[in-house]
Design brief:
Elements: H1 19-22, E1 42-44, H2 61-65, E2 70-76, H3 82-86, E3 98-103, H4 111-120, E4 126-130, E5 144-149, E6 154-159, E7 171-172, E8 174-177, H5 202-214, H6 224-230, H7 261-269, E9 280-285, H8 297-307, E10 319-323, H9 327-331, H10 350-359, E11 363-364, E12 376-377, E13 381-386
Parallel strand pairs: 2-3, 3-4, 7-12, 9-10, 10-11
Antiparallel strand pairs: 1-8, 2-5, 5-6, 6-8, 9-13
Helix pairs in contact: 5-6, 7-8
GO molecular function: 3'-tyrosyl-DNA phosphodiesterase activity; double-stranded DNA binding; exonuclease activity; single-stranded DNA binding
Family: Belongs to the tyrosyl-DNA phosphodiesterase family.
Pfam families: Tyr-DNA_phospho
């Protein structure tokens, strides 16, 4: 009588099963994903009286201008200290750099204009230009440098500091730098509309920048040599949108032209996707507040309304907060009350007093937990914070 075949225990290895399948198998090791670190085009200016550890990635004016390869500099600003500017170039080549200084002091008797003309006469390589001011009380607050180098590259630098030592010493300011822009390989017909290129692209940035510079030439030729030169450079490495202001009356609905001011900001934000998570804040930081009116119509309808725009319609309205320093915060800053010269607002008239009433509930402080004094901010910024 044949005995039945003995059944194999489950825990016993099958003799017919390949040994490779009998061993425990670990999952394959995950590949180490290499993180791509993209250096921010934004930096803060170096604060002289803070330790080096608190100045991480901060820049001085010499960091921006001391390259001996710089051959030409177009400098746009409100206030200028020419010796301070020239001392920031390489000492061996500063006398060779072609410097174009653009300011807005159009009155011949203006003390600032006289001082600029006297100071520039000490340097054979400086040429001053007066920006057109169509309004009597207009000011030229643009702060920008456009650099050309002997290696055939160009660079655009937009910042918030006046070209004076005070603003580059103990005042917090911001600097945006483009990459070094190479020349285009071939000729280019540059008659494009802004709408032909997406917001945030280098080509759109180039169109808007050149249109801004062309606005200086409305009365007399100022920036045409600069725009003609920039046309031949490749802006494709820039990932940014330019929002500039030009004095005058403009049609905010005309999408075939570059928009200016709040209309340009609104136009840009309409391309930015946002998600509605309920509570959200938009924080605005400024160093100067003009007379806006006894009612908050301009603030709510002209400034805040464009800031609510995004690519996604129907989102909830965010809370608006305005960061503005108190007198005590100015006193406790590194330069003390002296830094208050960069902070401007008025509360003397009855209209200005009413303005303060609707501004006070939305005024906020930056939290500063540092035991040392802070630098007073001359930085203009708009931050959208979405919870």
């Amino acid at each position: 009588m044949n005995r039945p075949v003995k059944r194999q225990r489950m825990e016993e290895p099958d003799a017919q099963t390949p040994e490779s399948l009998q061993r425990s198998i670990s999952p394959p090791k995950k590949r180490d994903r290499k993180l791509t670190v993209v250096k921010s085009p934004w930096q803060l200016t170096w604060i002289r009286d803070l330790p080096e550890g608190d100045n991480q990635d901060a820049v001085t004016l010499k960091d921006l201008l001391s390259d001996p390869l710089i051959s030409e500099c177009w400098e746009f600003n409100f206030l200028h200290d020419i010796p301070f500017l020239m001392n920031s170039f390489d000492p061996d080549t500063r006398h060779l750099v072609k410097v174009h200084l653009v300011h807005g002091f159009w009155k011949r008797e203006d003390a600032n204009r006289i001082a600029l003309e006297n100071a520039s006469s000490e340097f054979e390589n400086i040429k001053t230009h007066i920006a057109p001011m169509p309004e009597m009380f207009g000011t030229h607050h643009s702060k920008m440098m456009i650099l050309f180098r002997h290696d055939g590259t160009a660079q655009v630098i937009i910042h918030t500091a006046n070209m004076i030592p005070k603003d580059w010493t103990n005042m917090s300011n911001g600097v945006w730098k483009s990459p070094l822009l190479p020349k285009l390989s071939g000729a280019q017909n540059f008659q494009a509309s802004p709408e032909d290129h997406s917001v945030g692209s280098g080509q759109r940035f180039k169109i808007d920048l050149l249109n801004y510079l062309k606005a200086y030439d409305r009365r007399k030729i100022i920036c045409k040599p600069l725009t003609d030169k920039l046309t031949h450079y490749d802006f494709s490495s820039i990932k940014a949108a330019l929002v500039a202001s030009v004095p005058g009356k403009h049609d905010a609905r005309d999408m075939s032209e570059t928009s200016w001011g709040w209309a340009a900001l609104k136009r840009c934000l309409q391309h930015v996707p946002c998600q509605d998570h309920g509570d959200s804040d938009i924080v605005v930081q400024v160093s100067s507040i003009a007379t806006l009116g006894a009612k908050d119509d301009w603030l709510q309808k002209t400034l805040f309304e464009p800031l609510t725009r995004s690519k996604n319609p129907g989102l909830g309205r965010p809370r608006f907060k305005v960061v503005f320093p108190t007198a005590d915060e100015i006193r406790r800053s590194l330069d003390g009350y002296a830094s208050g010269g960069s902070i401007h607002t008025k509360i003397q008239s009855s209209q200005q007093a009413k303005q303060l009433e609707y501004l006070r509930p939305i005024f906020h402080h930056w939290a500063n937990d540092s035991p040392r004094g802070a630098s007073e901010s001359n930085l203009y910024a708009v931050l959208g914070l979405f919870a």
